[in-house]
Design brief:
With 1072 residues, this protein is mainly β.
Length: 1072
């Protein structure tokens, strides 16, 4: 609004109005014109002979009026009008003197008679027994007919309730017993309108009422503001919330601010991409009731909303204030000590429809409100959710471990979710216990909860608003829906009594106790095969865990598991079915000993072997971590499907899980604590194996870390660290200490792995220095840094200095790998001699094919074979390693001293297996085709002389889908051999090879799936698994095992209509 322009227009309009012409008359009396004469009042009236009146009218005071001196037959003059006479009415009608009309005469029906007023009322004999006809012709109940607690209501003639039916501190009003003023405690007053006790607080002079709350006008608050929000306070976009301290209860903290226009927060400064949202941070020292209000100032009409969001780990808690008109206001209960955020944002903001301007000012009020003395729940619960001070109730008639049933006859539709906050009030200060939801739906609505202490206070609360109806009314009573299951011995199971019916919104409780160190497993059966929610509580009323259970008769059964470290008493609540009421519901509770207990440290490995498991059942493995660890591993089953969840025993939360079809992979980081791994058989499962390895958790950069003194440490037993380059000026320094037992041949590989957009090519600098500052290794390259360190001094601390030339932020990981072998000397110019190959074991060599953008190097690696026996092989493998973007065109050849080319490969895998070489000198030549310096090509060469065991079988056995059992053949390996590599040649004739499942089992019992119903309608399986035939499983599962003994080949035809023959198969084993 342009006030200066509007004011100019207003003055112009007023000036124009004053210039409008006005009609004026001369002074003096009137002059009567022709045909008129002046009467006694000085008025001009018509002359008597100047007006002629028509027939039926006469002249009166100069005006023609109706001549009523003569009315016609059967009419009379009435009120100056001729109306029908009474004599005109026919038989059966009477003349109505009010309307001057003939009306039908009144006739009373059977059982009625006319009273003095001519009205038909019940006749004396028409009243029923126990009633009499009164003077008004009404049948009323005789006084003697009203029972105890009732009396005759003279106004209605019926028996009505009296105060005798109401208890202490209540009185009968409007047919209901409501509390009286004497029942109100200190700090509350009796509200005649609602019949409830409400806080004494009243609105201040000048306040407005918004949603039932007192709101001070914005212009008044703006003058009271002592704090202003400026700059970026949004923590979601790297802002810092305005940190404030609330004054004493009853005095609001007033804050002013502005919702500015959208601003830029990405790489395109020309395009605003962030809505301005202001955040204020407050800190609660315990349970605390506050009131938040936001409203625009008079200069801005932008509607706003506010609320409260908990900024506390593990507490998912937020409350939204409803917006009524331009005001957003509500009471909020802060349940626990900690930080909370109060946001201010435009109402209606969605997506990229940004709202804001430099004049969109607002004023925010945050007030600490004294928590009132809770009302007694025994007197009933009634109030308005909009004012939380109405909603504190002392569960005075309940003790610890009682079950509270809240029944709501009225529950307003104004909130999206209603909740119950439970507090312990034993110390006189509320201590938060938990929050539960009140079921939604049409009233009546019931909620069933465990009372956790003898001094429990419950607060009725709500999350967000969707209307204005916040009224509620209900009762609190002790539940009788509970069954005692008694003491459950270790590895025993008990069953509850069948429940005839349990509604979807209903619940039933069970109590029991178990020994220490047991797994509590809960199952369910019901006619509908429906799943249901169960919640487990400990003896103090705390929630141990919650989850879903599904009957075993369903296609996928689910059981609920929890760990009891100390044992003792528990309660479990079973809620109604997921899809509706359930009938004949039977709960089972068992106490089971864990399958295993693991107490690992960094560097450990563990294996758990178990099974078989029926569908829906579990093995539980305890995991006790003294320090934070990274856990990786696999879960493999011979047949069936095992899923897993890792549960934090302290909280009952699932912290990691896997539910793939087939084998599972575990990769997670866990802080110190007690956990259990639930190994659940999704399908019936044979034996399974879980292999786990444990490392220290990777470090996270802690700023500032620009110097050696402030370096962020990481463990060499971890996979490294993670951090962020803020810009080109940001230097990040990390440190590590070499273990006292690190072997001299160990190689430490450090790799900087940045997360950059495709096409971006920043340069990175990575330096490693010892404690004296001496440079140990350095890299300055595009794309990434890789440092390979060998010969590090034990117990020495080294620093890693990381930099970039990128002006924009870059997240990265500093990954760590440990291996053994030799490293190319940069001064070698690509000519390397690794010496003689050992008779046992391999030589591992790490090199780098570099390029300057014009030329590329060729690495010539010479080696010697001192001796090689018949049946032995030379195996040479070249693989790229530690490359973010691998250069294409890697080629490898082996030559003798002539030089004759012995072998050549230019496509992956670059693996030579040579059985014709003899003792002598050889060279492995490696080259790359491209000259792009941004593409690195580091490689690893492994060379070894191995013995090879080849055993074949030619059974010629039929493979038929009509055979209910699989086709099985065996062969025996007699040679002593530890497996380094293995190939499986197979010759199967079959007209639909996609029907086949092929498995190989070693003498040690390890089974690898070779083929799993692949190949569709193609014929035959002919080739070598591990070479030209892809393996469904992993042949490396056999590595390190003894090859000696019986090997088993299993072929299963899972289809129909096509058969085949197992012609031959075998094993080709390279020994270590």
């Amino acid at each position: 609004m342009n006030f200066k322009t509007d004011k100019t227009q207003l003055l112009a309009a007023l000036f124009a109005l004053t210039m409008m012409p006005m009609t004026m008359t001369a002074c003096g009396g009137p002059t009567c014109g022709s045909g008129t004469t002046e009467n006694d009042s000085g008025e001009c009236v018509p002359e008597a002979d100047a007006v002629t009146c028509a027939d039926g009218t006469t002249l009166s005071e100069g005006t023609c009026v109706l001549d009523t001196t003569g009315c016609g037959t059967n009419t009379v003059l009435q009120g100056g009008v001729c109306v029908p006479a009474e004599t005109l009415c026919a038989n059966g009608t009477t003349f109505n003197t009010t309307t001057s009309e003939c009306e039908a005469a009144q006739e009373c029906g059977a059982g009625t008679a006319a009273n003095d007023a001519g009205e038909c009322v019940p006749a004396a004999g028409a009243c029923a027994a126990g009633t009499t006809l009164n003077g008004d012709g009404i049948c009323e109940v005789a006084t003697a007919a009203c029972g105890a607690g009732t009396q005759l209501d003279a106004a209605t003639g019926t028996c009505a309730l009296t105060d005798a039916v109401c208890g202490d501190n209540t009185v009968l009003a409007n047919g209901s017993c409501t509390i009286i003023a004497d029942a109100c405690t200190t700090g509350t007053v009796f509200n005649d309108g609602t019949g409830t006790c409400t806080p004494e607080a009243t609105c201040k002079p000048g306040d407005a009422i918004s949603g039932g709350l007192c709101v001070t006008p914005a212009d008044v608050l703006f003058e009271m503001a002592t704090v202003e929000v400026t700059g970026n306070t949004n923590p979601e976009i790297d802002g810092t919330p305005l940190d404030v301290t609330l004054p004493a209860a009853g005095t609001p903290l007033v804050i002013k601010g502005t919702i500015d226009a959208a601003f830029d927060h990405d790489s395109d400064p020309a395009t605003p991409d962030v809505q301005d949202i202001d955040f204020v941070k407050i800190t609660a020292t315990g349970a605390q009731l506050i009131k938040v209000t936001v409203q625009p100032t008079n200069a801005s009409s932008i509607p706003l909303v506010t609320g409260v969001i908990a900024d506390i780990d593990g507490l998912d808690y937020d409350r939204t204030a409803p917006a009524i008109g331009s005001v957003s206001s509500r009471f909020v209960m802060l349940p626990v000590a900690g930080d909370y955020l109060v946001p201010v944002l435009p109402r209606g903001f969605t997506g990229d429809a940004y709202i804001g301007s430099d004049d969109y000012d607002y004023v925010l009020s945050i007030e600490d409100v004294a928590i009132p003395t809770p009302a007694l729940a025994s007197a009933g619960i009634q109030g308005e959710f909009s004012d939380l001070s109405d909603n504190f109730y002392d569960l005075d008639m309940f003790s610890s471990a009682d079950i509270l049933d809240l029944s709501f006859e009225e529950l307003g539709s104004g909130a999206s979710d209603y909740t119950l906050h439970f507090f312990d009030n034993a110390s006189g200060s509320l201590v938060y216990q938990r929050t539960e939801s009140i079921p939604s739906g049409d009233t009546p609505v019931s909620s069933s909860s465990l009372v956790s202490s003898d001094d429990t206070v419950v607060l009725l609360d709500w999350d967000g608003a969707k209307g204005t109806d916040f009224a509620y009314r209900g009762t609190a009573a002790a539940s009788t829906n509970i069954e005692a299951l008694g003491v459950i011995a270790a590895d025993a199971e008990v069953f509850g009594t069948a429940l005839a019916s349990l509604d979807a919104g209903g619940s039933f409780w069970y109590s029991f106790s178990v020994d220490p160190g047991q797994i509590i497993t809960i199952g369910l059966d019901n006619d509908e095969e429906d799943s249901a929610q169960v919640t487990l509580y400990d003896a103090s009323g705390g929630v141990v865990s919650a989850g879903r259970v599904t009957p075993e008769s369903f296609f996928s059964a689910e059981f609920f598991n929890a760990y009891s470290a100390a044992g003792g008493s528990y309660l479990v609540r079973l809620d109604g079915g997921n899809f509706g009421a359930i009938t004949n519901a039977v709960i089972s509770v068992s106490s089971n000993t864990p399958k295993a207990t693991l107490t690992p440290i960094a560097g450990d490995a563990a294996q758990v072997i178990g099974g078989p498991l029926t569908e829906g059942t579990s093995d539980i493995v305890l995991l006790d971590l003294a320090t934070a660890l990274e856990i990786t591993g696999t879960i493999n089953s011979i047949a069936g499907d095992i899923d897993y969840t890792i549960v934090d025993v302290a909280t009952g939360d699932i912290v990691n899980s896997g539910a793939r079809f087939g084998d599972e992979t575990i990769d997670t980081e866990l802080p110190a604590g007690l956990y259990f791994i639930d190994l659940l058989a999704y399908d019936p499962t044979d034996d399974y194996t879980m292999d786990l390895t444990f490392r220290d958790a990777p470090a996270t950069e802690v700023e500032p870390n620009e110097t050696d003194a402030t370096a962020t440490p990481f463990s060499l037993n971890s996979r490294g660290a993670s951090g962020t380059f803020a810009d080109a000026a940001d230097v990040d320094v990390y440190s590590f200490t070499v273990a006292a037992d690190q072997a001299p041949e160990d190689i430490l590989v450090l790799r900087l792995d940045p997360d950059v957009a495709a096409g971006a090519t920043p340069t990175y600098s990575c330096d490693v220095r010892d404690s004296s500052g001496t440079l140990v290794s350095q890299a300055n390259v595009v794309n990434e840094c890789v440092l390979m360190l060998k010969g590090l001094v034990t117990t020495e601390t080294y620093t890693v200095d990381l930099r970039t030339d990128s002006a924009t932020p870059i997240d990265y990981e500093l990954t760590l790998d440990r291996t053994t072998g030799e490293i190319e000397d940069p001064a070698s110019a690509g000519v390397i001699n690794v010496g003689s190959l050992p008779l046992a074991g391999s030589i591992d060599f790490f090199g780098d094919l570099a390029t300057d953008g014009v030329n590329t190097t060729v690495d010539a690696i010479s080696f010697k074979i001192d001796s090689i026996d018949a049946g032995q092989l030379l195996v040479v493998e070249v693989v790229p390693v530690y490359n973010r973007a691998v250069a294409p065109g890697l080629t490898a050849e082996i030559t003798d001293t002539v030089p004759n080319q012995i072998a050549f490969l230019d496509t992956a895998p670059l693996k030579f297996t040579l059985d014709t070489v003899t003792a002598g000198f050889y060279t492995l030549n490696l080259s790359r085709a491209d000259i792009d310096p941004s593409l690195t090509l580091r490689y690893k060469v492994s060379m070894e002389i191995v013995s090879k065991v080849i055993v074949n079988s030619t059974p010629g056995t039929s493979i038929s889908n009509a055979n209910p059992t699989a086709t099985i053949d065996t062969l025996n390996v007699g040679e002593a051999c530890v497996i380094a590599d293995i190939l499986i040649p197979v010759d199967i004739t079959h007209t639909w090879r996609g029907d086949l499942e092929l498995d190989l089992t070693s003498p040690a019992g390890t089974t690898v799936r070779l083929q799993d119903n692949i190949g569709s309608s193609a014929d035959d399986v002919l080739g070598v698994f591990g070479d030209d035939l892809a393996v469904d499983g992993d042949l490396s599962d056999f590595f390190g095992e003894s090859a000696t003994g019986v090997w088993t080949f299993t072929a299963t035809d899972t289809g129909g209509g096509d058969d085949g023959t197992l012609n031959s198969w075998g094993v080709e084993i390279s020994c270590q």
